[in-house]
Amino acid sequence: MRIDIVAVGRLKKGPEAAMVADYLDRFAKTGRSLGLPAIRIHEVEDKRGGGMLAEAELLTRSIPDGAAVVMMDERGDQPTSPDFATRIADWRDGARDICFVIGGADGLDPSLRQRADWQISLGRMVWPHMLVRVMLAEQLYRAATILAGSPYHRA
Ligand SMILES: C[S@@+](CC[C@H](N)C(=O)[O-])C[C@H]1O[C@@H](n2cnc3c(N)ncnc32)[C@H](O)[C@@H]1O
Question: Which of 28, 132, 137, 146 could bond 85 through an S-S bridge, CB–CB 3.0 to 4.6 Å?
Answer without folding.
Answer: 146
